[in-house]
């Protein structure tokens, strides 16, 4: 792989760049938002077998999911001793448990007797007693008792603790890794914690959490949220205020990529000039994250000489501050209104900035390569001086259930639910269209789909490393 950084400016759309838009903002550009590395990673097509062949899903089950750091839950979901979250992915199941000393440990959720899951639901536990024959483990994974101990001479004097997995935390999230030799979480997150340091992720709570089952491979679902150039066709209502083609895509490390899209700036694809007031009205119509606390539409006229972007940034500073009691007066315009998405390989996305943050996670749906589960969280700052609100429970939206109908019941604004519905409406047809492909490959844009290509290259690398490790152990 040629990872030599090069300047792609001449290879991009001629519209101004994200950084050039920020030059006009009212506050200095935060250094971490400036353009990052854009390595040349090629233009090779991607084989559709990666999405439609169950054999590829088996490779991922063997070499990907057991080897990567993955967000299991939020710390706020297991605040008390014994609180347990059952996290599952691709046939694996883990018990993530708060310990007496406040730490968090995680164990494989499979009875050492005949394999029954020890728990299928989370909650506060004082033991993990298997519902099948009653053998029990303590919440620290140590063996507790066995009603049929007389018949288990093979366990006498042996360590029959539950096998444990690695746990790490960042920003109020609990991460797990099934690989005992995995690099530390900090190494994988790389610059992300530093870039997010001002946004108070650990001081946020789950405002909503949707689990949407989607009729496509998990990668196809993830890729629907890794570039902005589908907006022109899939989300035309965003064009008055989304600078889609101006988006910045960076590969910060092997694991961390990101995309920044300016908002409150019209897309260059609009077929006529959009006035500053039209930008604001379009935002209000869609109900973007930046309209917190609300205001009458009539009160939202951009004063002469001001731009919609600076107007909305200031409006958001004040309305968000009124809502949560924090002071946003020093926050840059970009951090108040833009779409700033960081992805961590292979399947997590965290929105940066001061606004209520979206967080995504994509997982295979059990062993099925052709369906997946997309978790959509919205995290809000705990209001200053207030007790932490209870995290919203998971709201499941099924395969054939619409985001427009059920999203608002989960807490999404109707406008946001409509945007997700537009995204979801493509995905089953991506899967079946790939199956119908005569050429058997997908072609990715060189710049705007850089992050998708990087994900595939890392996936290949991870699988190759796993195979090499197996070969070394066998040899
Ligand atoms: S399978 Fe768990 S006690 Fe028998
Ligand atoms: Fe989208």
Brief write-up:
The chain is an alpha+beta fold and 475 residues long. The protein is 27% helix and 24% strand. The protein folds into 2 domains: 9-47 and 204-459, Naphthalene 1,2-dioxygenase Alpha Subunit, Chain A, domain 1 (Alpha-Beta Complex); 70-181, Rieske [2Fe-2S] iron-sulphur domain (Rieske Iron-sulfur Protein, 3-layer Sandwich), CATH 2.102.10.
SSE order and pairing:
Elements (H helix, E strand, L loop, with lengths): L17 H5 L23 E2 L1 H4 L1 H10 L6 E5 L8 E7 L2 E7 L5 E5 L14 E2 L3 E2 L6 E2 L5 E3 L18 E7 L2 E5 L7 H5 L2 H4 L8 E11 L3 H6 L7 H4 L7 E10 L4 E8 L12 H11 L21 H17 L8 H5 L1 E6 L3 E4 L5 E9 L2 E14 L12 E4 L5 H8 L3 H22 L5 E2 L7 H25 L1
Parallel strand pairs: 12-19
Antiparallel strand pairs: 1-20, 2-11, 3-4, 3-6, 4-5, 5-10, 7-8, 8-9, 10-11, 12-18, 13-14, 14-15, 15-16, 16-17, 17-18
The structure holds FE2/S2 (inorganic) cluster (FES) and fe (ii) ion (FE2).
- The global form is globular
How far the N terminus sits from the C terminus, by CA atoms, comes to: 28 Å
By CATH, the topology of the largest domain is Naphthalene 1,2-dioxygenase Alpha Subunit, Chain A, domain 1
Content-based structural category:
alpha+beta
Computed Rg: 24 Å
- The second-level CATH architecture of the largest domain is Alpha-Beta Complex
Strand content: 15-25%
The proportion of residues forming helix, as a percent range, comes to 25-40%
State the major sheet. Answer: 8 strands, mixed
Total domains: 2
* Count of distinct strands: 20
Kindly report the spatial arrangement of strands forming the biggest sheet.
13-14-15-16-17-18-12-19
Number of helices: 13
CATH class type of the largest domain: Alpha Beta
Averaged pLDDT: 94
Give the uncertain stretches in residue-range form: 1-6
């Amino acid at each position: 792989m040629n990872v030599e950084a090069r300047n792609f400016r001449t290879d991009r759309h001629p519209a101004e760049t994200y950084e050039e838009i920020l030059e006009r903002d009212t506050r200095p550009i935060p250094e971490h938002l400036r353009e990052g590395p854009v390595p040349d990673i090629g233009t090779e097509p991607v084989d559709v077998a990666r999405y439609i062949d169950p054999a590829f899903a088996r490779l991922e089950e063997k070499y990907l999911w057991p080897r990567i750091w993955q967000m299991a839950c939020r710390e706020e979901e297991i605040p008390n001793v014994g609180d347990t979250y059952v996290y599952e992915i691709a046939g694996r199941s883990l018990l993530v448990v708060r310990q007496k000393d406040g730490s968090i440990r995680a164990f494989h959720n499979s009875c050492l007797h005949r394999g029954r899951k020890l728990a299928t639901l989370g909650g506060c536990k004082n033991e993990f007693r298997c519902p099948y024959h009653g053998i029990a483990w303590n919440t620290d994974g140590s063996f507790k008792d066995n009603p049929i101990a007389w018949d288990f001479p093979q366990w006498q004097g042996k360590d029959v603790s539950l096998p444990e997995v690695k746990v790490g935390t960042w920003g109020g999230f609990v991460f797990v890794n099934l690989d005992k030799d995995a690099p530390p979480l900090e190494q994988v997150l790389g610059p992300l914690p530093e870039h997010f340091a001002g946004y108070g992720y650990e001081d946020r709570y789950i405002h909503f959490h949707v689990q949407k089952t989607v009729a496509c491979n998990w990668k196809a679902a993830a890729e629907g949220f890794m570039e902005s150039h589908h907006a022109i066709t899939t989300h035309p209502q965003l064009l008055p205020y989304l600078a889609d083609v101006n988006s910045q895509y960076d590969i910060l490390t092997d694991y961390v990529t990101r995309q920044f899209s300016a908002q409150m700036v019209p897309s260059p694809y609009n077929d006529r000039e959009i006035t500053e007031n039209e930008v604001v009205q379009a935002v209000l119509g869609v109900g973007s994250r930046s309209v917190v606390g609300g205001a009458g539409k009539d009160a939202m006229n951009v004063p002469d000489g001001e731009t919609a972007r600076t107007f909305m940034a200031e409006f958001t500073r004040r309305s968000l501050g009124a809502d949560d009691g924090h002071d946003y007066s020093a926050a840059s315009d970009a951090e108040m209104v833009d779409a700033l998405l960081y992805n961590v390989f292979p399947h997590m996305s965290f929105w940066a900035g001061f606004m209520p943050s979206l967080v995504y996670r994509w997982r295979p749906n059990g062993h099925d390569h052709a369906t997946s589960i997309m978790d959509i969280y919205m995290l809000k700052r705990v209001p200053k001086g207030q007790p932490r609100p209870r995290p919203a429970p998971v709201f499941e939206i099924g395969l054939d259930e619409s985001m427009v109908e059920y999203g608002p019941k989960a807490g999404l604004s109707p406008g946001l639910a409509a945007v997700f519905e537009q995204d979801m409406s493509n995905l089953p047809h991506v899967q079946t269209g790939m199956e119908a492909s005569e050429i058997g490959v997908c072609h990715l844009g060189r710049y705007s789909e850089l992050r998708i290509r990087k994900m595939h290259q890392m996936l290949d690398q991870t699988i190759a490393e796993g195979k090499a490790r197996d070969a070394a152990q066998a040899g």
